[in-house]
Amino acid sequence: MSDVVAQGLDPSNPNLRFLEEVSRRTAGVSRLEMCIQCGTCGGSCPSSADMDHTPRMLFAMIRAGMREEALQSNTPWICVSCYHCVVRCPQDVHIADVMYTLKSMAIHAKLYRDSTPPHFSQTFVDMVEKYGRSYEFGLATRHYLKHFPLRLPGMAPMGLGMLTRKRIELKPRRIRGIQQLHAILERAKEVEENE
Amino acid sequence: MSAYLYYPGCSMEASALAYHESLMAICEPLGLNLDEIEDWNCCGATEYVGVSTTPAYALICRNLALAKEQAKGTDTVVAPCSACYLNLAKANYYMRERPSLGEKVNAALAAGGLHYEPDSLIIRHLLDVIINDIGLDTVKSKVVRPLTGLRVAPYLGCMVPRPDYQKRWSDHEHPNELDRLLRALGAQVIDFPLKTHCCGGHMTQIGPATAFELIRRLIASAQQHQADLMATVCPMCQMNIDAYQAETNRHFRTNYRMPILFFTQLMGLAFGLDPKRLGFGREFVNAQPALSRIGVEVPTNEAEQKPPRIPGRRDKNLPMPRMPGEEEN
Hints:
By secondary structure, chain A is mainly α.
């Protein structure tokens, strides 16, 4: 730690432990500490062109304790969970799961810049928590009205097509054990917060 | 009869109804007995894990706990949907890899009187079960109407062959399972280079431009290889490539008409089952023209829309070179 102090950094700065925190919050063993900055992840990524930072850069920022910058990056929100990087990573870093962790931390700290992706996730989760099943009609109408009102006219034939093909249901389906599910999720949130 | 616990997932009831209908139709000829998990809930797709970890895994594991209680003579859970399959398999794997996750999930499940011991169930995808348990010999023996002459692009998408922690697939990027199955049905399977590339997943909802480019790449590649249609194992892939094809065409001013069907629909056709039971007509990009090539009639949606009018570019100037699939003015 003395080296850190010598560099003029405050050892009580929690951001120095940012890498540890991201890794700890990730489901499974993230192995993020093992990243060797080879860049295979970014080179394998089908959507990296739309990202603020390639995954490699993002992981370097996490290691450098650049908490705000990392959580503000659009990279985790552009990740399509295709797992190409995961199977190619020579260090077996659970990259996709690290992206999920960064999303949840960005939501918690309200550090995302574009509200569309987190609102979509949250609306999806709200529906699942309410009914125990996904409810696409409710999700689509709420999401598009809020974030893509201009896309709606162009989407109308598709929405209508979904209805005539019986590919979307107007009414949600609720599971019988919804009380049980609520109890489980309630407890899970307590466990998560006490971490 | 091979018996399995069955986790359908939300898509099978609506957006991928054709997958459900065709799967139910081929169960009997395949001798596949699917015991649906009672009162299962949504797996959270790729959304819940991005909001909070413990609740997301508790949500997934309620299904596994219920399945274990219901299990009679089998430990195998089968999921037809890629995202559901991956979520169930990952939860099972991570609870063992990181025992603290297992403890947290079980602390949450206890509030609902449930418990799940990691690895007490085996999670498998439907295609894996058909190839490795039922076997291609059985599949071949049921084929009465081979799909000879139909050029099919086998499209697996991402989440079935990857990350594949249980090492169930022949390759992470170019697995051959779906190719072998389609070949057993008599189809002419193209060597589809993008067979495990991404369809854009939920990006159609949150970042359409990103998604449209991924959809375009897949359709363009299938078209370049002169596929009549694509066959998929995933509700999300089918939805993105089928229902968003018109919007993708508008975005790039292209005029692709690439049908995409579930592999179970093609199995049903090859088994000589009544196409009415196989969910045809639910697709947006009509599969009938492709199937006419091999003399198969299937129900189509009456409200089949005309190809969307593409705005702009109405000039009659010098003819310019065009990519295949681009509209000719």
